[in-house]
Amino acid sequence: MATLSALLVMAVGCGAGIWQLSRADTKIAMAATLLARQQMPILNANAGPWSLEEASERRMIARGQYLPNAAVWLDNRPRPIPPAGSATAQSGFYLMMSLRLEGKDEVLWINRGWAPRNNENRETLPPVKTPSRVVNIEGIVFAHPGKVYELGNNKIDVDVSKPRIVQNFDLESEGKLRGWSQSPFILREVEVGAEDGLLRDWAPLTSGVDRHYAYAFQWFALAFTGFLFWLFTGLRQYQRQSVSNGHRGDQE
């Protein structure tokens, strides 16, 4: 029974450790792919149309005017890179805002950045400055701004004439809701230093790799502990059998 338990612990520990290492390798490979695509020529959203396959993870510039009344605030988003010395991630919003492309009857959704939540009143939106003029935006193309777990399907009647807070952003649903012609991707803005109340210090795709390595070490340590348990249990059993056989030999 002890042997079976030890083997089970070793199998689980080794399997989970290998899985954590594969997760780390996947993130490293994804980051390398993203970096390679960012080195490709910069796309111009106004010169499209571009498909998601053509533009995904590429750098892109866009020129147009924001439609602030259509803003969508994505709730429960941790600060991409926590401040130095902070042990916990600060919760806040991603601001998704539509950009009417200049010279085109098309909208491009922009992830403008992160802003902290008002801890006293979660319905109070952060103060953010939005230019009323035509602007130039540079960013990286993604299929969506990332998803968080939510209860329900968020299918409720909404007022499209004013900003709203949601858990997740559905690009296709937004287009149908507003009857817009829009790009099949979002653009995550990369400009830093702009004094508009938003942070754009995006975490690299390799963030979390060290955590996967730490988890893998813990799982392998558990497997090694199971091996030691099996080894010591076997040695003790062998010693007891030797002593028992020795007593029987003396009695004879």
Description:
There is one protein chain. With 252 residues, the protein is α/β, with parallel strands linked by helices. The protein folds into two domains: 2-20 and 212-251; 40-202, no CATH class. The chain is 37% helix and 23% strand. It contains four helices and eight strands, in the order H-E-H-E-E-E-E-E-E-H-E-H. The protein has helices spanning 2-38, 52-55, 171-178, 209-251, and strands at 43-44, 59-66, 72-78, 91-101, 107-116, 135-142, 164-166, 182-189. The chain has a five-stranded mixed barrel with strand order 2-4-5-8-6. Helix 2 (52-55) links the parallel strand 1 and strand 2.
Please outline what is shown here.
This protein is of the alpha/beta class and 252 residues long. It is built from four helices and eight strands, in the order αβαββββββαβα.
Sum up the structure in keywords.
252 residues, alpha/beta, 2 domains, five-stranded mixed β-barrel, 4 helices, 8 strands, elongated
| Radius of gyration from the alpha-carbon trace, in angstroms | 27 Å
Q: How much of the sequence is in beta strands?
A: 15-25%
Category from helices, strands and their pairing: alpha/beta
The number of distinct β-strands equals 8
Please write the string of helix (H) and strand (E) elements: HEHEEEEEEHEH
Shape: elongated
Give the total of domains.
2
Number of helices: 4
- Terminal CA distance reads 32 Å
Mean model confidence by pLDDT: 83
Could you list the spans in which at least 5 consecutive residues all have pLDDT below 50? Answer: none
Give the spatial strand order of the biggest sheet.
2-4-5-8-6
The largest sheet is: 5 strands, mixed, barrel
**Oligomeric state of this protein:** single chain
- Estimate the helix proportion, in percent: 25-40%
